[in-house]
Amino acid sequence: MGSTCPPRRRSAAAFLAFIAFALSAGPLAPAPRTVRIGLFPAAPLVFEKDGKPAGLFIELAEHFARELGWNLEFERGTWENLQAELTDGRIDLLPALGYTPERTKTRDFSKHPVFVDSGVVFTSPRFPIHTVFDLEGRKIAAVRGSVFTEGFLIYTGSFGISCRMVLTEDNAQVMAAIADGSADAGVTIYSLGTELARNYPVRVTPISFSPVALHFAVRKDANADILEGIDRLMAAMVNDPESFYSRAFRKWTQPEPERTVPTWIWFTLAGIAFAGMLFAAWSLSLRSQVAAKTKSLTAEIQERIRAEERLKATLLQEETLLRELAHRIGNSLQLVKSLVGLKAADYPDKSVEAFAQNLGGKLDSIILAQRMLPESDDLSSIPLRKYIENLTETILSELGRSDGSIRVRIEVDAPDILLDIAIPLGLIVNELVSNSLLHGIPEGREGTIRIEACETAPGRLCVRYADDGSGVPPGFDPRTQDSSGFRFILALAEGQLKGAVTFPAGNGFRCSFEVPTDLYHRRITLRSDCSE
């Protein structure tokens, strides 16, 4: 008979076999990470199509889910409700949230922005809007809790404009309010607004504001693993033109433009130059007509009384036309600035955005001078102190530094200055103040800017500029730097105005220049100059 194993020995053998099988099978796979993500109508970034989530942010989230082993659950709701759900922890991830310093108190954002958008005003074709001043007292529809609603109120407030706000739950309701007449105009994000405009009788206006970077966001100090996964995958894709992110971006927005300045910008600049030449030609033509009539009337002494009345009427008409032209040129330049900013927001290339912002700052200097000109007595000169004060206030507002952190001290002891001298001086001051705010006293710091101007001798104006920022390194010589800003200052002060520029040593950054003010002469004659 064959031998048999005792029961105890058989049990031990079975236990060892089970242990060997368990070790060979390896560890159990972890359960998929469930990520609850907000879904709301904001095409082409986030929306639903045929009952399925779609858009640039959604396609990226689905890619992250495949790569990181997530299980996505979509929570539908209004923009305001989804933000509350993120705060309460009912959802884990909110796409297409605009980054603001205030929101970082309750939100953590992904490191890499997915899209840059801006707010824009739409209106009914029945209600024409040319500038932001046309919105005074109007009913404006906007999404409750949107960063662009807040940005619109700040933007209109900077012009002293008061609107009656009609708050809605989403951008589609904004368009519906414009269409049914319950609002005169509406505020939406540009990308979604252009999509919705195809289905409503609305049109876009040249008024744009508050460009903002859109990120993925989670609740503050929660779901750090979600952001870590997103940041790791995005870091590998942002600089790869053929990455999943780059292909999705082109799919949902537009083909990537060439990295050159768009042709329309050059046409815009040509239009500005043409408008200037048209204004000069019209002015010369009017002066020629007045001179011809004056010469004819001199020979007719017996009709002197009637001739003087006709001359005064002609001069009054000329003065009215010139003041209206100066006003309209200022408005036209403001429209050009708005159009440049609006179109630049369509291009992801940061160089186009920087070009548009730099151009807008320079246009501000010209716009302010043109708008002050109709208030002057002779339509040739403007008060220098008021011009510098208005210009610095505009720069602080445009760069978001009008919160009181920058103190501006202006001391001007000089008479009114010709427009031909004021505009180049304004461009130089614009460049110096912008340089201080962007480099010497960056955001988050407090500082002081001092601008002094005085007449050192008849026909000689000295301007001294200083800030208490970080300054420049020892031995720094602006004349040897490959900087368009310093070249621009030197070209205007020394080239155009025939002056001299120095960069004195001291704390912070300092610049002084002295220019002649008698390079040009007053070219317009008004009634007060020839009434005796």
How would you describe this structure to a colleague?
With 532 residues, this protein is of the alpha+beta class. Among the domains are: 115-213, D-Maltodextrin-Binding Protein, domain 2; 258-375, no CATH class; 383-532, Heat Shock Protein 90, CATH 3.30.565.10. 47% of the residues lie in helices and 21% in strands. It contains 15 helices and 18 strands. Strands 5, 6, 7, 8, 9, 10 and 11 form a 7-stranded mixed beta sheet that branches. Helix 4 (147-158) links the parallel strand 8 and strand 9.
Structural class: alpha+beta
- What would you give as the CATH superfamily of one domain? Histidine kinase-like ATPase, C-terminal domain
Shape: globular
Find the CATH topology of one domain.
Heat Shock Protein 90
Return the average pLDDT rounded to an integer: 83
Radius of gyration: 32 Å
Give the tally of β-strands.
18
* CATH architecture verdict of one domain: 2-Layer Sandwich
Count of discrete alpha- or pi-helical segments spanning 4 or more residues: 15
The top-level CATH class of one domain is Alpha Beta
Helix content: 40-55%
Strand % is 15-25%
The major β-sheet equals: 7 strands, mixed
Cα(first) to Cα(last) distance is 149 Å
